[in-house]
Amino acid sequence: MMMLFYLIGGLVTLLICGDLLVRGAVALAVKFGVPSLIVGLTVVAFGTSAPELMVSVGAVLNGTPGLAIGNIVGSNVANVLLVLGLPALVYPIACNQPSLPRNTLTMLAVTVLFVIICLGGVLSVLQGLLLFTLLIIFLTYSGYHATRWPEEEHVDDPENIDGVSGLPKSPLAIAGFILIGVVGLPAGAHYFVEGGTEIARFFGVSDAAIGLSVIALGTSAPELATTIMAALRKQPDLAIGNVLGSNIFNLLCIMGITPMIADIPIPHAFIYFDLWVMLIAAMAIVPFAMAGRTITRRAGIFFLAAYVAYMYFLFVADNHSGLA
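Now predict its structure.
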Protein backbone atom coordinates (compact mmCIF):
# COMPACT_ATOMS: atom_id res chain seq x y z
CA MET A 1 0.00 0.00 0.00
CA MET A 2 2.81 2.41 0.91
CA MET A 3 4.61 1.76 -2.41
CA LEU A 4 1.44 2.69 -4.32
CA PHE A 5 1.15 5.87 -2.24
CA TYR A 6 4.78 6.71 -3.05
CA LEU A 7 4.17 6.10 -6.76
CA ILE A 8 0.99 8.19 -7.01
CA GLY A 9 2.20 10.88 -4.61
CA GLY A 10 5.52 11.14 -6.45
CA LEU A 11 3.77 11.41 -9.82
CA VAL A 12 1.38 14.12 -8.63
CA THR A 13 4.31 16.04 -7.13
CA LEU A 14 6.27 15.71 -10.38
CA LEU A 15 3.38 16.96 -12.52
CA ILE A 16 2.50 19.90 -10.26
CA CYS A 17 6.08 21.01 -9.62
CA GLY A 18 7.07 20.54 -13.25
CA ASP A 19 4.15 22.73 -14.30
CA LEU A 20 5.03 25.40 -11.74
CA LEU A 21 8.68 25.39 -12.82
CA VAL A 22 7.73 25.84 -16.48
CA ARG A 23 5.32 28.69 -15.71
CA GLY A 24 7.83 30.43 -13.44
CA ALA A 25 10.71 30.04 -15.88
CA VAL A 26 8.64 31.26 -18.85
CA ALA A 27 7.42 34.26 -16.83
CA LEU A 28 11.01 35.08 -15.87
CA ALA A 29 12.16 34.82 -19.48
CA VAL A 30 9.30 37.03 -20.67
CA LYS A 31 10.09 39.58 -17.96
CA PHE A 32 13.66 39.85 -19.26
CA GLY A 33 12.46 40.20 -22.84
CA VAL A 34 13.60 36.81 -24.12
CA PRO A 35 11.93 36.11 -27.52
CA SER A 36 9.08 33.60 -27.44
CA LEU A 37 10.91 31.37 -29.94
CA ILE A 38 13.89 30.97 -27.60
CA VAL A 39 11.52 30.41 -24.67
CA GLY A 40 9.83 27.59 -26.55
CA LEU A 41 13.04 25.92 -27.69
CA THR A 42 14.81 26.10 -24.33
CA VAL A 43 12.84 27.01 -21.20
CA VAL A 44 9.59 25.20 -22.05
CA ALA A 45 11.28 22.24 -23.72
CA PHE A 46 13.69 21.64 -20.83
CA GLY A 47 11.02 22.40 -18.24
CA THR A 48 8.51 19.92 -19.63
CA SER A 49 11.28 17.29 -19.75
CA ALA A 50 12.24 17.95 -16.12
CA PRO A 51 10.07 15.14 -14.64
CA GLU A 52 11.60 12.54 -16.99
CA LEU A 53 15.09 13.88 -16.28
CA MET A 54 14.59 13.78 -12.50
CA VAL A 55 13.14 10.26 -12.68
CA SER A 56 16.02 8.97 -14.83
CA VAL A 57 18.72 10.59 -12.71
CA GLY A 58 16.99 9.41 -9.53
CA ALA A 59 16.79 5.86 -10.89
CA VAL A 60 20.52 5.80 -11.67
CA LEU A 61 21.40 7.18 -8.24
CA ASN A 62 19.01 4.66 -6.68
CA GLY A 63 20.85 1.77 -8.32
CA THR A 64 18.05 0.93 -10.79
CA PRO A 65 19.42 2.06 -14.19
CA GLY A 66 17.00 -0.24 -16.03
CA LEU A 67 14.19 1.96 -14.78
CA ALA A 68 15.95 5.04 -16.22
CA ILE A 69 16.26 3.76 -19.78
CA GLY A 70 12.89 2.00 -19.51
CA ASN A 71 11.34 5.35 -18.65
CA ILE A 72 12.66 6.96 -21.85
CA VAL A 73 12.09 4.08 -24.27
CA GLY A 74 8.62 3.43 -22.83
CA SER A 75 7.78 7.13 -22.90
CA ASN A 76 8.73 7.42 -26.58
CA VAL A 77 6.59 4.39 -27.44
CA ALA A 78 3.67 5.79 -25.42
CA ASN A 79 4.05 9.23 -27.01
CA VAL A 80 3.36 7.80 -30.46
CA LEU A 81 0.97 4.91 -29.88
CA LEU A 82 -0.98 6.28 -26.89
CA VAL A 83 -0.59 10.08 -26.93
CA LEU A 84 -1.45 10.23 -30.65
CA GLY A 85 -3.74 7.19 -30.76
CA LEU A 86 -6.18 8.17 -28.01
CA PRO A 87 -6.85 11.77 -29.12
CA ALA A 88 -7.31 10.55 -32.72
CA LEU A 89 -10.37 8.63 -31.51
CA VAL A 90 -11.84 11.92 -30.30
CA TYR A 91 -10.91 14.02 -33.33
CA PRO A 92 -8.65 13.18 -36.31
CA ILE A 93 -5.19 14.76 -36.17
CA ALA A 94 -4.13 16.72 -39.26
CA CYS A 95 -0.42 16.48 -40.10
CA ASN A 96 -0.20 19.61 -42.24
CA GLN A 97 2.37 21.77 -40.45
CA PRO A 98 5.19 22.84 -42.82
CA SER A 99 7.93 21.90 -40.34
CA LEU A 100 6.63 18.36 -39.70
CA PRO A 101 8.59 16.51 -42.43
CA ARG A 102 11.91 17.99 -41.25
CA ASN A 103 11.22 17.32 -37.56
CA THR A 104 9.93 13.82 -38.32
CA LEU A 105 13.11 12.88 -40.16
CA THR A 106 15.16 14.38 -37.31
CA MET A 107 13.26 12.32 -34.73
CA LEU A 108 13.67 9.16 -36.82
CA ALA A 109 17.41 9.77 -37.31
CA VAL A 110 17.90 10.38 -33.59
CA THR A 111 15.97 7.19 -32.77
CA VAL A 112 18.08 5.13 -35.20
CA LEU A 113 21.29 6.59 -33.74
CA PHE A 114 20.14 5.84 -30.19
CA VAL A 115 19.32 2.23 -31.09
CA ILE A 116 22.77 1.80 -32.67
CA ILE A 117 24.49 3.27 -29.60
CA CYS A 118 22.54 0.97 -27.28
CA LEU A 119 23.60 -2.12 -29.22
CA GLY A 120 27.00 -1.67 -27.59
CA GLY A 121 25.42 -2.79 -24.32
CA VAL A 122 26.06 0.30 -22.21
CA LEU A 123 25.54 4.06 -22.27
CA SER A 124 28.61 5.80 -20.86
CA VAL A 125 29.88 9.38 -20.58
CA LEU A 126 31.06 9.44 -24.21
CA GLN A 127 27.68 8.40 -25.59
CA GLY A 128 25.99 10.89 -23.28
CA LEU A 129 28.24 13.70 -24.52
CA LEU A 130 27.51 12.76 -28.14
CA LEU A 131 23.74 12.83 -27.59
CA PHE A 132 23.83 16.09 -25.65
CA THR A 133 26.06 17.72 -28.29
CA LEU A 134 23.51 16.73 -30.94
CA LEU A 135 20.83 18.38 -28.79
CA ILE A 136 22.75 21.67 -28.81
CA ILE A 137 23.15 21.40 -32.60
CA PHE A 138 19.44 20.65 -33.01
CA LEU A 139 18.40 23.62 -30.87
CA THR A 140 20.81 25.94 -32.66
CA TYR A 141 19.60 24.85 -36.09
CA SER A 142 15.94 25.05 -35.02
CA GLY A 143 16.46 28.58 -33.76
CA TYR A 144 18.25 29.61 -36.97
CA HIS A 145 15.61 28.02 -39.20
CA ALA A 146 12.72 29.55 -37.28
CA THR A 147 14.36 32.98 -37.49
CA ARG A 148 14.82 32.67 -41.25
CA TRP A 149 11.41 31.10 -41.95
CA PRO A 150 9.13 32.09 -39.02
CA GLU A 151 5.98 31.28 -41.01
CA GLU A 152 6.83 27.56 -40.74
CA GLU A 153 7.20 27.55 -36.99
CA HIS A 154 3.92 29.14 -35.82
CA VAL A 155 5.74 31.21 -33.18
CA ASP A 156 3.07 32.30 -30.76
CA ASP A 157 2.86 34.54 -27.74
CA PRO A 158 4.95 32.96 -24.92
CA GLU A 159 1.83 32.27 -22.88
CA ASN A 160 0.51 29.95 -25.58
CA ILE A 161 3.66 27.90 -26.19
CA ASP A 162 2.88 24.22 -25.60
CA GLY A 163 -0.23 25.20 -23.68
CA VAL A 164 1.63 27.26 -21.08
CA SER A 165 -0.78 29.83 -19.61
CA GLY A 166 -1.56 31.55 -16.33
CA LEU A 167 1.94 32.93 -15.87
CA PRO A 168 2.78 34.60 -12.52
CA LYS A 169 3.19 38.36 -12.79
CA SER A 170 4.95 39.64 -9.67
CA PRO A 171 8.66 38.92 -9.00
CA LEU A 172 7.72 37.23 -5.71
CA ALA A 173 5.23 34.90 -7.42
CA ILE A 174 7.73 34.07 -10.16
CA ALA A 175 10.41 33.25 -7.57
CA GLY A 176 7.90 31.14 -5.62
CA PHE A 177 6.90 29.11 -8.71
CA ILE A 178 10.55 28.43 -9.61
CA LEU A 179 11.54 27.59 -6.02
CA ILE A 180 8.67 25.13 -5.54
CA GLY A 181 9.47 23.52 -8.87
CA VAL A 182 13.20 23.18 -8.18
CA VAL A 183 12.65 21.78 -4.68
CA GLY A 184 9.62 19.63 -5.48
CA LEU A 185 10.87 17.90 -8.65
CA PRO A 186 13.72 15.94 -7.02
CA ALA A 187 11.47 15.01 -4.08
CA GLY A 188 8.69 13.83 -6.39
CA ALA A 189 11.16 11.88 -8.53
CA HIS A 190 12.62 10.17 -5.45
CA TYR A 191 9.26 8.86 -4.25
CA PHE A 192 8.08 8.02 -7.79
CA VAL A 193 11.20 5.93 -8.42
CA GLU A 194 11.02 4.39 -4.95
CA GLY A 195 7.39 3.38 -5.48
CA GLY A 196 8.08 1.99 -8.96
CA THR A 197 11.06 -0.01 -7.72
CA GLU A 198 9.11 -1.52 -4.83
CA ILE A 199 6.22 -2.45 -7.12
CA ALA A 200 8.67 -4.19 -9.47
CA ARG A 201 10.07 -6.18 -6.56
CA PHE A 202 6.61 -7.03 -5.23
CA PHE A 203 5.40 -8.42 -8.57
CA GLY A 204 8.74 -10.03 -9.37
CA VAL A 205 9.30 -8.11 -12.61
CA SER A 206 12.38 -6.16 -13.62
CA ASP A 207 12.80 -2.48 -12.92
CA ALA A 208 13.19 -2.06 -16.71
CA ALA A 209 9.67 -3.47 -17.25
CA ILE A 210 8.24 -1.06 -14.68
CA GLY A 211 10.12 1.78 -16.37
CA LEU A 212 8.69 0.81 -19.76
CA SER A 213 5.12 0.73 -18.44
CA VAL A 214 4.11 2.41 -15.18
CA ILE A 215 6.90 5.00 -15.02
CA ALA A 216 6.71 5.79 -18.74
CA LEU A 217 2.93 6.23 -18.55
CA GLY A 218 3.32 8.54 -15.57
CA THR A 219 5.90 10.78 -17.20
CA SER A 220 3.89 10.85 -20.46
CA ALA A 221 0.77 11.98 -18.58
CA PRO A 222 1.25 15.73 -19.31
CA GLU A 223 1.56 15.13 -23.07
CA LEU A 224 -1.47 12.82 -23.01
CA ALA A 225 -3.61 15.30 -21.06
CA THR A 226 -2.58 18.17 -23.37
CA THR A 227 -3.40 16.30 -26.58
CA ILE A 228 -6.74 14.98 -25.28
CA MET A 229 -7.81 18.49 -24.26
CA ALA A 230 -6.73 19.79 -27.68
CA ALA A 231 -8.76 17.05 -29.36
CA LEU A 232 -11.83 17.88 -27.27
CA ARG A 233 -11.45 21.49 -28.44
CA LYS A 234 -11.10 20.13 -32.01
CA GLN A 235 -7.60 21.64 -32.25
CA PRO A 236 -5.32 18.59 -32.13
CA ASP A 237 -3.02 19.62 -35.00
CA LEU A 238 -0.08 20.60 -32.76
CA ALA A 239 -0.14 17.23 -30.98
CA ILE A 240 2.19 15.49 -33.42
CA GLY A 241 4.67 18.38 -33.28
CA ASN A 242 4.77 18.16 -29.49
CA VAL A 243 5.27 14.38 -29.65
CA LEU A 244 8.18 14.74 -32.08
CA GLY A 245 9.81 17.37 -29.86
CA SER A 246 9.27 15.31 -26.72
CA ASN A 247 10.81 12.18 -28.29
CA ILE A 248 13.84 14.11 -29.55
CA PHE A 249 14.38 15.70 -26.13
CA ASN A 250 13.95 12.39 -24.32
CA LEU A 251 16.74 10.77 -26.33
CA LEU A 252 19.16 13.68 -26.74
CA CYS A 253 18.65 15.57 -23.47
CA ILE A 254 17.71 13.01 -20.83
CA MET A 255 19.72 10.11 -22.26
CA GLY A 256 22.50 12.62 -22.88
CA ILE A 257 22.67 13.91 -19.31
CA THR A 258 21.92 10.74 -17.33
CA PRO A 259 24.92 8.64 -18.57
CA MET A 260 27.22 11.51 -17.55
CA ILE A 261 26.24 10.75 -13.95
CA ALA A 262 26.66 6.97 -14.12
CA ASP A 263 26.93 4.27 -16.78
CA ILE A 264 23.60 2.78 -17.87
CA PRO A 265 23.80 -0.92 -18.83
CA ILE A 266 21.29 -1.88 -21.54
CA PRO A 267 19.17 -4.93 -20.55
CA HIS A 268 19.16 -7.75 -23.11
CA ALA A 269 15.40 -7.39 -23.55
CA PHE A 270 15.90 -3.88 -24.88
CA ILE A 271 18.51 -4.97 -27.43
CA TYR A 272 16.35 -7.82 -28.71
CA PHE A 273 12.90 -6.23 -28.47
CA ASP A 274 12.05 -2.90 -26.81
CA LEU A 275 14.42 -0.65 -28.79
CA TRP A 276 12.96 -2.04 -32.01
CA VAL A 277 9.42 -1.39 -30.80
CA MET A 278 10.45 2.23 -30.18
CA LEU A 279 11.96 2.44 -33.68
CA ILE A 280 8.85 0.93 -35.30
CA ALA A 281 6.66 3.39 -33.38
CA ALA A 282 8.84 6.26 -34.66
CA MET A 283 8.53 4.95 -38.21
CA ALA A 284 4.73 4.77 -37.87
CA ILE A 285 4.56 8.59 -37.87
CA VAL A 286 6.55 8.94 -41.11
CA PRO A 287 3.77 8.17 -43.67
CA PHE A 288 1.44 10.69 -42.02
CA ALA A 289 3.96 13.50 -41.51
CA MET A 290 5.78 13.22 -44.84
CA ALA A 291 2.61 13.02 -46.96
CA GLY A 292 0.57 15.46 -44.86
CA ARG A 293 -2.00 12.76 -44.17
CA THR A 294 -4.51 12.84 -41.32
CA ILE A 295 -4.26 10.41 -38.40
CA THR A 296 -7.82 9.09 -38.61
CA ARG A 297 -9.86 7.28 -35.99
CA ARG A 298 -9.01 4.00 -37.72
CA ALA A 299 -5.30 4.78 -37.41
CA GLY A 300 -5.89 5.80 -33.79
CA ILE A 301 -7.48 2.41 -33.07
CA PHE A 302 -4.50 0.68 -34.69
CA PHE A 303 -2.04 2.72 -32.60
CA LEU A 304 -3.91 1.93 -29.38
CA ALA A 305 -4.21 -1.77 -30.23
CA ALA A 306 -0.46 -1.88 -30.86
CA TYR A 307 0.22 -0.23 -27.50
CA VAL A 308 -2.07 -2.63 -25.62
CA ALA A 309 -0.40 -5.57 -27.38
CA TYR A 310 3.03 -4.25 -26.37
CA MET A 311 1.97 -3.88 -22.73
CA TYR A 312 0.50 -7.40 -22.79
CA PHE A 313 3.67 -8.84 -24.27
CA LEU A 314 5.78 -6.91 -21.79
CA PHE A 315 4.13 -8.46 -18.73
CA VAL A 316 2.60 -11.73 -19.88
CA ALA A 317 4.72 -13.32 -22.62
CA ASP A 318 7.11 -15.79 -21.05
CA ASN A 319 9.99 -15.30 -23.46
CA HIS A 320 10.04 -11.53 -22.92
CA SER A 321 9.89 -11.80 -19.13
CA GLY A 322 12.76 -14.23 -19.39
CA LEU A 323 14.77 -11.72 -21.38
CA ALA A 324 14.00 -8.93 -18.92
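The radius of gyration is 19 Å.
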